[in-house]
């Protein structure tokens, strides 16, 4: 099992940050790692990487402007993501934690590094989209 966390301040109010993070259908307009997203229903969506690799997400918690959680799974891993949003006036503190179990033994050494890289890229893309 690999756990990765990123905690940072975004220079935008919580409504803007929350709205862009939860607008899954618009991810391909600002996320540099995705080609598209597909909405299955109000609780499930699929993200596709630039290479077409699909990951399915199932929302488990949605507390507006506070917390968003989902389970995620693809052929290489399964796990859970927790996003905590804290209102700091004109800024928003985000605290995102991923807990992932690899499905293939040879991936074990790379999972945590990959998660860290993905989280860092997500935050960079998010900050750029909010400029």
Query: Which range does the strand content fall in?
Result: over 45%
Please give the share of residues in helix: 10-25%
Strand order of the largest sheet: 1-7-6-5-4-3-2
Q: Determine the structural class based on helices, strands and strand pairing.
A: alpha+beta
The rounded Rg comes to: 14 Å
The major pleated sheet works out as: 7 strands, antiparallel
Taking all residues together, what is the mean pLDDT?
94
- Helix-strand sequence: EHEEEEEEH
Number of discrete helical segments: 2
Distance from N terminus to C terminus (CA atoms, Å) equals 35 Å
The unreliable regions are none
| Number of DSSP-assigned strands | 7
Overview of the molecule:
There is one protein chain. The chain has 131 residues and is an alpha+beta fold. Helices cover 21% and strands 47% of the residues. It has a seven-stranded antiparallel sheet, covered by helices on one side. Strand 6 (77-88) and strand 7 (91-102) form a beta hairpin. The protein is globular. The termini are far apart. 14% of the residues are buried. The mean pLDDT is 94. It comes from Blautia hansenii (Ruminococcus hansenii). This is SRPBCC family protein.
